[in-house]
Design goal:
With 176 residues, the chain is mainly alpha-helical. It has eight helices and four strands. The strands form two sheets. The protein has a two-stranded parallel ribbon. The chain has a two-stranded parallel ribbon with strand order 3-4. α2 crosses α3 and α6 packs across α7. The chain is globular.
Length: 176
């Protein structure tokens, strides 16, 4: 069961505002222009957008959507140590991190799901070559981030290889 599906349910049942870093970045790419073109080139290589730009974008969107009154579910963030450092620099203690939800699944299952999504949605970054690069990036950049938050007792892992409903039962426990 994918992140997007689970995020939709979390928003519905727990009152969070969902911010998908990927969606926010793709919206910026669609707008075009200098920033959009720069982001497009980075993303098509399977690489990560600069943390400074990403946190600026998140901060802007959070303020625009009512920072003071909302709980935010930030999907796809942080993905590396630089993300954490920029978050701490730009936002710091002005936002409270409840926990990091890790949707855990094997590379093989993830690959199958991404290729299927690419066929159904036409997303250019859901192709074999980019997926391989994304796995490499995840192992090198994101796994150490998970370890940072594990040391702080802030990680809740969910086995997301199960059905959508089975995964959501576990997700609900994490949010309760």
């Amino acid at each position: 069961s994918g992140k997007g599906t689970q995020c939709d349910r979390i928003v519905r049942d727990f009152g969070y505002e969902h911010l998908s870093t990927g969606d926010l970045l793709r919206e910026e790419v669609k707008k075009g222009g200098e920033l959009g073109d720069k982001l497009s080139a980075i993303m098509s290589e399977g690489k990560l957008v600069s943390s400074e730009l990403l946190v600026q974008l998140l901060k802007k969107v959070m303020h625009d959507r009512g920072w003071e009154k909302k709980k935010f579910l930030i999907d796809g963030f942080p993905r590396n140590q630089e993300n954490i450092d920029q978050w701490n620099k730009q936002i710091g203690d002005s936002a409270y991190l409840n926990f990091v939800l890790v949707m855990d699944v094997s590379e093989e299952v993830m690959r199958e799901r991404l290729l299927k999504r690419g066929q159904e949605s036409g997303r250019a970054d859901d192709n074999e070559a980019t997926i391989v690069k994304r796995f490499e990036t995840f192992t090198k950049e994101s796994v150490p981030v998970i370890k940072v938050y594990e040391k702080k007792n802030k990680v809740k892992k969910i086995d997301s290889s199960k059905t959508v409903d089975e995964v959501y039962e576990e997700v609900k426990k994490a949010f309760s």
